[in-house]
Amino acid sequence: MKLVKGKSLLDKIENIISTSHQVREDHLYLTVKDLYTLENPGKVDFGGSEYKAGKIVAVMPEQSPKKEKKKKEETKKTNYPWWKCSAGQYLVEINEKINPCAGMFAFFTPAPMLLRNNAFHPQVFYPLTEESLDNYRYIPLTVGEPGLNLKKNARITCLYIYHFREDFFPPS
Q: N or C end of the chain: smaller count of CB under 10 Å?
Protein backbone atom coordinates (compact mmCIF):
# COMPACT_ATOMS: atom_id res chain seq x y z
CA MET A 1 0.00 0.00 0.00
CA LYS A 2 1.14 3.51 -0.73
CA LEU A 3 0.15 6.60 1.23
CA VAL A 4 -1.55 9.29 -0.87
CA LYS A 5 0.14 12.62 -0.14
CA GLY A 6 -0.15 16.33 -0.77
CA LYS A 7 -2.57 17.76 -3.28
CA SER A 8 -3.53 14.26 -4.45
CA LEU A 9 -5.62 14.07 -1.28
CA LEU A 10 -7.83 16.89 -2.57
CA ASP A 11 -8.93 14.77 -5.54
CA LYS A 12 -10.63 12.34 -3.16
CA ILE A 13 -12.44 14.82 -0.89
CA GLU A 14 -15.25 17.35 -1.35
CA ASN A 15 -16.62 20.06 0.96
CA ILE A 16 -13.30 21.04 2.52
CA ILE A 17 -13.80 24.12 4.66
CA SER A 18 -10.22 25.45 4.59
CA THR A 19 -7.34 23.80 2.75
CA SER A 20 -4.80 25.83 4.73
CA HIS A 21 -6.16 24.47 8.03
CA GLN A 22 -7.10 20.96 6.96
CA VAL A 23 -4.61 19.67 4.40
CA ARG A 24 -1.24 18.39 5.58
CA GLU A 25 1.51 16.60 3.64
CA ASP A 26 0.31 13.09 4.50
CA HIS A 27 -3.22 13.52 5.88
CA LEU A 28 -6.31 15.65 5.97
CA TYR A 29 -8.31 16.84 8.98
CA LEU A 30 -12.03 16.06 8.92
CA THR A 31 -14.41 18.43 10.66
CA VAL A 32 -17.64 18.26 12.67
CA LYS A 33 -20.85 18.99 10.78
CA ASP A 34 -23.37 17.80 13.36
CA LEU A 35 -23.52 15.88 16.62
CA TYR A 36 -26.05 13.20 17.58
CA THR A 37 -26.94 10.73 20.32
CA LEU A 38 -28.87 7.49 20.05
CA GLU A 39 -32.45 7.71 21.30
CA ASN A 40 -33.04 3.97 21.24
CA PRO A 41 -30.88 0.92 20.57
CA GLY A 42 -30.36 -0.61 17.16
CA LYS A 43 -30.37 -4.31 16.32
CA VAL A 44 -27.45 -6.32 14.92
CA ASP A 45 -27.80 -10.00 14.00
CA PHE A 46 -25.65 -12.59 12.27
CA GLY A 47 -27.31 -12.67 8.84
CA GLY A 48 -28.31 -9.02 8.62
CA SER A 49 -32.02 -9.66 8.01
CA GLU A 50 -32.91 -8.26 11.45
CA TYR A 51 -30.47 -5.33 11.34
CA LYS A 52 -31.95 -2.01 12.37
CA ALA A 53 -30.06 1.24 12.98
CA GLY A 54 -30.77 2.96 16.28
CA LYS A 55 -32.72 6.21 16.06
CA ILE A 56 -30.44 9.22 16.23
CA VAL A 57 -31.35 12.58 17.71
CA ALA A 58 -29.50 15.81 16.98
CA VAL A 59 -27.71 17.45 19.89
CA MET A 60 -28.48 21.14 19.75
CA PRO A 61 -25.45 23.43 20.01
CA GLU A 62 -25.44 26.56 22.09
CA GLN A 63 -24.94 29.87 20.36
CA SER A 64 -21.68 31.30 21.62
CA PRO A 65 -21.94 34.70 23.29
CA LYS A 66 -21.28 37.61 20.99
CA LYS A 67 -18.04 39.37 21.75
CA GLU A 68 -17.31 43.00 21.22
CA LYS A 69 -15.42 43.44 17.98
CA LYS A 70 -12.48 45.79 18.07
CA LYS A 71 -11.44 45.67 14.44
CA LYS A 72 -13.63 46.06 11.38
CA GLU A 73 -12.26 42.90 9.70
CA GLU A 74 -13.14 40.82 12.78
CA THR A 75 -16.84 41.47 12.15
CA LYS A 76 -16.58 39.28 9.02
CA LYS A 77 -15.78 36.18 11.11
CA THR A 78 -18.61 33.72 11.52
CA ASN A 79 -19.69 32.97 15.05
CA TYR A 80 -20.01 29.15 15.02
CA PRO A 81 -22.00 27.46 17.79
CA TRP A 82 -20.57 25.11 20.44
CA TRP A 83 -21.81 21.80 21.77
CA LYS A 84 -21.30 21.30 25.50
CA CYS A 85 -20.73 17.56 25.62
CA SER A 86 -21.05 15.78 28.95
CA ALA A 87 -19.07 12.58 29.41
CA GLY A 88 -20.69 9.90 27.25
CA GLN A 89 -21.21 8.56 23.75
CA TYR A 90 -22.06 10.56 20.64
CA LEU A 91 -22.16 10.18 16.86
CA VAL A 92 -20.34 12.79 14.79
CA GLU A 93 -21.30 13.57 11.21
CA ILE A 94 -18.41 15.02 9.21
CA ASN A 95 -18.61 17.93 6.77
CA GLU A 96 -16.33 16.45 4.15
CA LYS A 97 -17.49 13.98 1.52
CA ILE A 98 -15.06 11.23 0.62
CA ASN A 99 -15.36 10.05 -2.97
CA PRO A 100 -15.35 6.32 -3.72
CA CYS A 101 -12.23 5.13 -5.49
CA ALA A 102 -11.32 1.55 -6.43
CA GLY A 103 -8.14 0.28 -4.84
CA MET A 104 -8.07 3.00 -2.18
CA PHE A 105 -8.48 2.68 1.57
CA ALA A 106 -9.23 5.24 4.29
CA PHE A 107 -7.73 5.26 7.77
CA PHE A 108 -9.46 7.45 10.36
CA THR A 109 -7.64 8.24 13.61
CA PRO A 110 -8.49 10.80 16.32
CA ALA A 111 -6.82 14.20 16.00
CA PRO A 112 -4.26 14.95 18.76
CA MET A 113 -6.32 17.87 20.11
CA LEU A 114 -9.24 15.51 20.68
CA LEU A 115 -7.09 12.98 22.55
CA ARG A 116 -5.52 15.71 24.69
CA ASN A 117 -9.00 16.62 25.92
CA ASN A 118 -9.97 13.10 27.04
CA ALA A 119 -12.11 12.35 23.99
CA PHE A 120 -11.56 9.86 21.19
CA HIS A 121 -13.16 7.85 18.43
CA PRO A 122 -12.20 4.41 17.15
CA GLN A 123 -9.52 4.04 14.54
CA VAL A 124 -11.14 2.73 11.37
CA PHE A 125 -9.61 1.32 8.19
CA TYR A 126 -11.87 0.50 5.24
CA PRO A 127 -12.03 0.47 1.42
CA LEU A 128 -13.29 3.59 -0.34
CA THR A 129 -16.33 1.91 -1.85
CA GLU A 130 -19.82 3.40 -2.04
CA GLU A 131 -21.12 0.82 0.46
CA SER A 132 -18.31 1.45 2.96
CA LEU A 133 -18.72 5.21 2.77
CA ASP A 134 -22.46 4.89 3.47
CA ASN A 135 -21.71 2.71 6.50
CA TYR A 136 -19.24 5.21 7.94
CA ARG A 137 -21.40 8.31 7.63
CA TYR A 138 -21.24 8.74 11.40
CA ILE A 139 -18.18 8.36 13.61
CA PRO A 140 -18.74 7.23 17.22
CA LEU A 141 -17.24 9.73 19.68
CA THR A 142 -16.48 8.98 23.32
CA VAL A 143 -16.12 11.94 25.67
CA GLY A 144 -14.57 11.39 29.09
CA GLU A 145 -14.79 13.47 32.26
CA PRO A 146 -15.10 16.41 32.69
CA GLY A 147 -16.73 16.67 29.25
CA LEU A 148 -15.80 18.58 26.10
CA ASN A 149 -16.81 21.86 24.48
CA LEU A 150 -16.88 21.09 20.76
CA LYS A 151 -17.22 23.85 18.18
CA LYS A 152 -18.99 23.33 14.86
CA ASN A 153 -16.39 22.65 12.13
CA ALA A 154 -13.76 21.61 14.71
CA ARG A 155 -11.00 19.38 13.32
CA ILE A 156 -11.39 16.07 15.15
CA THR A 157 -10.21 13.34 12.78
CA CYS A 158 -7.05 12.71 10.78
CA LEU A 159 -7.78 10.96 7.49
CA TYR A 160 -5.00 9.04 5.76
CA ILE A 161 -5.72 7.58 2.32
CA TYR A 162 -3.80 4.57 1.00
CA HIS A 163 -3.66 3.20 -2.52
CA PHE A 164 -3.34 -0.52 -3.00
CA ARG A 165 -0.61 -1.17 -5.54
CA GLU A 166 -1.58 -3.99 -7.87
CA ASP A 167 2.07 -4.84 -8.39
CA PHE A 168 2.55 -5.38 -4.65
CA PHE A 169 2.02 -9.12 -4.85
CA PRO A 170 3.84 -11.24 -7.43
CA PRO A 171 1.61 -13.04 -9.96
CA SER A 172 0.44 -16.46 -8.77
A: C
For 166, phi then psi, to 5°, come to -65, -25
Mean pLDDT of the chain: 87
Cα Dmax for the chain: 69
pLDDT at 63 over 80: no
Q: Residue 172: how many CA atoms within 13 Å on its side-chain side?
A: 1
Provide the 10 A C-beta neighbour count for residue 113: 12
Q: Which helix (DSSP H) or strand (DSSP E) does residue 113 occupy?
A: helix 112-115
Tens of pLDDT, residue by residue over 76-100, are 556 899 999 999 999 999 999 988 8
pTM of the model: 0.84
Closest to 95 (Cα-Cα) out of 31, 18, 158, 20: 31
Domains of the chain: 2-41+53-60+82-165 (2.70.40.10)
Distance from C-alpha of 106 to C-alpha of 159, rounded to nearest angstrom: 7
